[in-house]
UniProtKB/TrEMBL annotation:
Segments of skewed composition (Polar residues): 118-128
UniProt family annotation: Belongs to the 2-oxoacid dehydrogenase family.
Any single biological process term in GO: pyruvate decarboxylation to acetyl-CoA
Record domain Lipoyl-binding: where: 2-77
Region Disordered, residue ranges: 86-133
Regions annotated as coiled coil: none
Gene3D superfamilies noted in UniProt: 2.40.50.100, Chloramphenicol acetyltransferase-like domain (3.30.559.10), E3-binding domain (4.10.320.10)
InterPro entries according to UniProt: 2-oxoA_DH_lipoyl-BS, 2-oxoacid_DH_actylTfrase, Biotin_lipoyl, CAT-like_dom_sf, E2/Pdx1, E3-bd_dom_sf, PSBD, Single_hybrid_motif
Name of this chain's protein: Dihydrolipoamide acetyltransferase component of pyruvate dehydrogenase complex
Essential cofactor(s): (R)-lipoate
GO cellular component: pyruvate dehydrogenase complex
Enzyme class: transferase
Length: 429
């Protein structure tokens, strides 16, 4: 029997996927549950596993190309004798709807801490499967390196291409220095973990039309959807002297400004459930959790919004650790869909780039997004009628006017300012 491997729908908004790499070549034996291809969804790379045992007869969509969700990307023959018949069938294959014979899709295993060396294996595993990047797996096969004997240097011990090259006695490929992904949320102090090697980006030429990445296409789709929502915007100036002082106290303990701002916003939202609610047909959906999404720009274009779930219930130090982990995995495209699509309130911070103020575009499915500008020394009139210098930042909120009104946003901003200016120590409790 010949089975079709379909382009899976890896998220509710995905309409097409891009083949990152094939882990099997035509003619290779495929075990049931074995990963055969890595597909780039909107914002992450995901493994696609086979439901059946057999032989990869032919590849319909090569690596680097895209295909609509539900279309056949390869054919799997149950026996070697059926391979030629599958190749002939491939020439007549047209996109079809997904069926039960499609390859199963599972998220790329979340990196786990490296296993302690006990004389058997030094590689981290999850569910019995070694955690390694797709390129590392391919390279290990080419160089005949046993994955289980390799120590990973990637995030959480994940094996990357450079590890395979070292294990094979080769000098790791020297790549041009890439600029780190610039988080639109406040920067994470720690350096990004090593990543799997990626192809250098070709320089653009005048008049050239450069195709968008899958991530950029997803951003376009979301922005177009936001045009259907009536919004309003409100601004507020917040004095940050107390916040800056607290940051100096906790920075040495690994706390980031991202965590401080997220914690402050989450605590302010506790009193304003309408601000993290969302519009549904003729109604308001009040979300159970305060999940703060922070926008992060990706180095190859587009942006992603890692989510700090239940931010109001986490302590400051946990938030910082979780944020660093999310950013590391966002940069290596290892976030699971629920980790970037479950936000109930979004924060975008261009203040780190020196931007004084800006308006953010409301993400689909949310009620509000807060844009944070830079904190700068400002001459102000004090309560005693004198002049003084205070550090101040401007925040702008964009709200869905179908469910949130001006007064709702104004009171939230006032409460957020009060917390930051006079009750900032409560963030450490």
């Amino acid at each position: 029997m010949i089975h079709e491997i379909f382009m899976p729908a890896l998220s509710s908004t995905m309409t097409e996927g891009k083949i990152v790499s094939w882990l099997k070549a035509p003619g290779d034996k495929v075990e049931k549950g074995e990963t055969v291809v890595v597909v780039e969804s909107d914002k992450a790379d995901m493994d696609v596993e086979s439901f059946y045992e057999g032989f990869l007869a032919t590849i319909v969509v090569d690596a680097g190309n895209s295909a609509p969700v539900g279309s056949a990307i390869a054919l799997l023959a149950e026996t070697e004798a059926e391979i030629e018949a599958a190749k002939q069938q491939a020439t007549q294959t047209t996109p079809s709807a997904p069926a039960a014979t499609a390859a199963a899709t599972t998220p790329t295993p979340e990196p786990v801490a490296a296993a302690a060396t006990n004389g058997s294996s030094s590689a981290p595993t999850q569910n019995g499967r070694i955690v390694a990047s797709p390129r590392a797996r391919k390279l290990a096969k080419e160089l005949k390196v046993e994955l289980g004997a390799v120590v990973g240097s990637g995030p959480h011990g994940r094996i990357v291409a450079e590890d395979i090259e070292k294990a094979a006695g080769k000098t790791p490929t020297v790549k041009p220095a890439a600029k780190p992904a610039a988080p639109v949320a406040p920067a994470v102090a720690a350096a990004p973990a090593p990543r799997a090697a990626s192809a250098p980006v070709a320089p653009t030429q005048p008049g050239q039309i450069k195709p968008m990445t899958t991530l950029q296409t997803a951003v376009v789709r979301n922005m177009n959807a936001s045009l259907d929502v009536p919004v309003f915007r409100a601004s507020y100036t917040i004095t940050t002297d107390a916040l800056d002082k607290l940051y100096k106290q906790v920075k040495s303990k690994g706390v980031t400004m991202s965590a401080l701002l997220t914690k402050a916003i989450a605590m302010a939202l506790q009193k304003h459930p309408l601000l993290y609610a969302s519009y549904v047909e003729n109604g308001i959906h009040f979300n159970e959790s305060i999940n703060i999404a922070n926008a992060v720009a990706m180095e190859d274009g587009g942006l992603i919004t890692p989510v700090l779930k239940n931010a109001d219930q986490q302590d400051l130090y946990s938030l910082s650790r979780n944020w660093k982990d999310l950013v590391d995995r966002a940069r290596s495209k290892q976030l699971q869909p629920d980790e970037y699509s479950s936000g109930t309130f979004t924060v975008s911070n261009l203040g780190m780039f020196g931007v004084d103020a800006f308006d953010a575009i409301l993400p689909p499915g949310q009620g509000a997004i807060l844009a944070i500008g830079a904190s700068r020394p400002t001459v102000v009139a004090t309560d005693d009628g004198l002049l003084g210098v205070r550090r101040q930042m401007q925040v702008n909120i964009t709200c869905d006017h179908r469910i949130i009104y001006g007064a709702d946003a104004a009171i939230f901003l006032r409460d957020l300012a009060k917390l930051i200016e006079t009750d900032v120590q409560s963030l450490t409790l």
